[in-house]
Design brief:
By secondary structure, the protein is of the alpha/beta class. It has helices at about 1-10, 20-45, 50-55, 60-90, 95-110, 120-130, 150-160, 165-175, 180-185, 210-225, 225-235, 295-305, 315-320, 325-335, 355-365, 420-435; strands at about 115-120, 140-145, 245, 255-260, 265-270, 280-285, 305-310, 335-340, 375-380, 405-410, 410-415, 415-420. Helix content is about 45%, strand content about 15%. Helix 6 links the parallel strand 1 and strand 2.
């Protein structure tokens, strides 16, 4: 069994696009030329001592000798190349023969992958990125800067930095493996409950609820002098596949007009306060509303092969990016395929009772009709589970005369059926690209 696995792994080196066969051919040509030169040199010393008669097996027919020497030479060269590769790479990667070829195969596949831009924030975007990184390294995540809750909100208010939380999640999702460094990046210091004794002495209140990654990005911004540079350096620490950029570098506040009963309308300020307003969201907008987009985000959109909005909180993660006019203009101008990924389940305080059509209607009301001609929605409702209170699966509906097409698929994470499955979602999107 082990020998068969090793053989299959060895044959994988010959898959088109691995970038190995061309160098093997060059090596073979070089060895052949060198052998020819060595043979001509020996000819100058003829007649050779009698021992060469036995060393060169001249008592065997010439055809058999050629095959025997060729096979032995090929085996020696192959063994030498494998052992040399392992020795050279050992300080940098874990190399048993099978893992090395798989690592090279994944690297080459991702290098040939399409340019994909994902727009959003929160947990939904990180779920998408975790799946897509297996197919391409040309990934750009455009992340909202409107977050004002939790650890990110505190750092934003106290230190004046852009909220790092969603960026941290995306960087961790794009990490090449979920190693100790990634776990450390996501580590959150436990909150000290009111009236209880803090752990490890001292009051510890300065770290309560903060994640290590948030503090790391904030410190890196101070050291490098800019938030965008901090994101780049943080990504290099975790060796991420792709890059994470903000939709804007300006400090913005997400505002919402919420319909309440019996008062009428309330205006709510702050992303974290909107879901708790206990009303139906009529519209959201940014204050100020005329901020410029981050140039790298616009460039990525114009160069993309696929632009994906969502999944994630419709009003507080996806729309804050699209409310930046330069971002929407770049999406319209881009030749990329454009897909909106509708949430699997409704979100309390934001999309209560929404179906797919309601999601798209809200999206287009804040941007423009037809911005995303394709809508990807889950159509697997044959699951039995107890959803969180107030959460239900989003039903599929396509209003007559709609200027978009709904593409259904099984996108549910069976462990948490109110969430997307990373692998299913990424695989479906890649199939859409392949099918045009």
């Amino acid at each position: 069994m082990k020998s068969r696995r090793l053989l299959r792994s060895s044959l994988r080196w010959l898959i088109p696009g691995m970038g190995v066969k061309r160098w093997l051919v060059m090596l073979a040509v070089g060895i052949a030329v060198l052998s020819l030169g060595f043979g001509l040199l020996l000819r100058e010393f003829y007649p050779l001592p009698g021992a060469f008669y036995f060393l060169t097996l001249q008592f065997i027919p010439r055809g058999w000798r050629a095959g025997l020497f060729g096979s032995v030479g090929l085996a020696i060269v192959a063994l030498a190349l494998v052992r040399l590769s392992q020795t050279m790479l050992e300080p940098f990667v874990e190399v048993d023969g099978e893992m090395l070829v798989n690592a090279v195969y994944r690297y080459r596949r991702r290098e040939r992958g399409p340019k994909i831009v994902a727009i959003g924030g929160g947990n939904g975007l990180s779920v998408l990125l975790r799946g897509l990184k297996e197919y391409t390294s040309h990934l750009t995540a455009i992340v909202t800067v409107a977050d004002d809750g939790g650890s990110s909100g505190r750092l934003r208010r106290e230190l004046g930095v852009l909220p790092p939380g969603d960026f941290r999640n995306c960087i961790a999702a794009l990490a090449d493996d979920e190693a100790l460094t990634t776990q450390l990046f996501q580590y959150r210091f436990a909150s000290t409950e009111k009236g209880s004794e803090p752990r490890h002495g001292g009051n510890g209140s300065g770290l309560d609820g903060h994640s290590f990654g948030n503090l790391f990005i904030t410190a890196m911004a101070e050291v490098t002098g800019s938030f965008e540079r901090a994101l780049l350096e943080s990504g290099q620490v975790l060796a991420i596949q792709g890059r994470v950029v903000p939709s804007t570098l300006h400090d913005v506040t997400l505002m919402a007009d919420v319909r309440t009963e019996p008062v009428g309308f309330d205006r709510v300020a702050g992303e974290s306060h909107i879901p708790m307003a206990n009303g139906a969201i009529e519209r959201v907008f940014l204050a100020p509303d005329d901020v410029a987009a981050y140039p790298e985000a616009v460039h990525a959109l114009l160069e993309a092969d696929l632009i994906v909005a969502g999944p994630g909180s419709l009003y507080t993660s996806v729309l804050p990016n699209l409310l930046i006019r330069d971002v929407t203009r770049a999406i319209v101008a881009s030749r990329a395929a454009k897909v909106y990924v509708c949430n699997v389940a409704t979100q309390r305080g934001e999309t209560d009772g929404y179906d797919v059509g309601d999601h798209v209607e809200a999206l287009e009301a804040h941007t423009e009709p037809g911005l995303f001609p394709a809508v990807l929605a889950n159509d697997n409702f044959d699951v039995s589970f107890e959803p969180p209170t107030g959460v239900e699966l989003v039903s599929v509906s396509e209003p007559s005369g709609a200027d978009y097409a709904i593409i259904g698929g099984d996108l549910i994470d069976l462990s948490y059926p109110w969430r997307h499955d990373s692998d299913k979602l990424a695989r479906t999107l890649m199939q859409l690209i392949e099918e045009g």
